[in-house]
Amino acid sequence: MAEDHTNQQPQQPPQPAEPQGFDAQQSQAYAQGQAQPFAQSQPYGQAQAQQPYGQPGAHQYAQPGCGQQYYAPAAQPVYAAPASRKKNMTPWIVLGVILFAVVFCFTIGAMSCSSAVRSLSNFGMGSVEEELTDGPTVAVIDISGTIQYDGTACSPEGLSSLLNQAEENDDIEAVVLRVDSGGGTATAGEEMAEYVKRFSKPVVVSSASMNCSAAYEISSQADLIYVNKTTDIGAIGTVMQVTDLSELLDKLGISVDNIASAESKDSSYGTRPLTDEERAYYQELIDVTNEVFVENVAEGRSMSLDEARALATGLSFTGEQAVENGLADEVGVFDDAIEAAAQLAGLGSDYNVITLTQSSDLGSLMDLLSESDSDSATSAAAAKLIELLKNEGVLS
């Protein structure tokens, strides 16, 4: 049976509870909406405790019997760097397939597989195209920059790769190192000098503005060194720098505590002066390293050790001075060095000149696609793409 709600009165909203501590006049005013609920008349010091400002979650009954408890907000999460992920080559593969299709749209006639695969290359390193080395060739390797371990031609791994390609290519008869470097790390220079020494074909150095320190150690192993009159060359020497920042740190009020496994482990950190024993130790390291440098120069330049030591002052010479003291052979420009390399290889006047460079397979592909000769560019680009897909496991 349905209930009859016709005569029922609408419910009134509940009246707020009367605040505690109000007198009669305030209570009446509050009921009429003319007073604020916090206008208490209780004596000072007897009001109900309020939640402390800046302490969210505080409640006097949070834990019975434990007094007022304050709940600090949860600590914010610290976002660590995302875990390293394996390089995704899929976009490059897709791009390569697209480029491959575009190239073939402009190719006239069928292209045989044998004509496609014509490049000699190492993945991620430099490459030598057979078309560029068709006949006697002088290869140029550019060593410009700091000698260090960075994978470029200024590094042991980079120079070794390029020299190996020149060694294995029967058309390349000689190499010219175009050097423009102020030096770098001692070990990298020593290793690169060894690679030049082991190279079986003629090597000629063409010095640009600078050929100093570790760069000169490399150059000293060549068959001939060409310089300009104003080339800065030599600077045979080794240096190590240890900066003492202890007094500066004291003035700035900075205290550094080094926790080390041995007394001298922090000797090169710059937070304290070197002891006499540590200074002597580092000096011995420098002397031993420099002796290797001097020995390489003496051997490469057919000097005695005493002659090489006399030139190992750490100072550089002009090109003309270097020719006079035996650190260089001829004053001449880049073209003169190339001609000298060709003569050492017995090439006469009919030879090619190419530059061996460091580049990725994808970069080489892009370069080849920009060639004006569409047929040769297509063949070489196809070879590059096939090699890239094989390295990625897409093709077997």
Automatic annotation (TrEMBL):
Key words of the record: Hydrolase, Membrane, Protease, Serine protease, Transmembrane, Transmembrane helix
One of the protein's GO biological processes: proteolysis
UniProt-annotated stretches for the region Disordered: 1-60
MF-aspect GO terms: serine-type peptidase activity
Upper taxonomic lineage: Bacteria, Bacillati, Actinomycetota, Coriobacteriia, Eggerthellales
Membrane-spanning residues: 92-111
Residue ranges of every copy of the Peptidase S49 domain listed in the record: 200-347
Family annotation (SUPFAM superfamilies): beta-sandwich domain of Sec23/24, ClpP/crotonase
InterPro entries on file: ClpP/crotonase-like_dom_sf, Pept_S49_SppA, Peptidase_S49, S49_SppA_C
Amino acid composition bias (Low complexity), ranges on this chain: 18-60
Pfam families xref list: Peptidase_S49
UniProt record similarity statement: Belongs to the peptidase S49 family.
UniProt-recorded name of the protein: Signal peptide peptidase SppA
Keyword Transmembrane listed: yes
Gene3D superfamilies according to UniProt: 2-enoyl-CoA Hydratase, Chain A, domain 1
Source species, domain of life: Bacteria
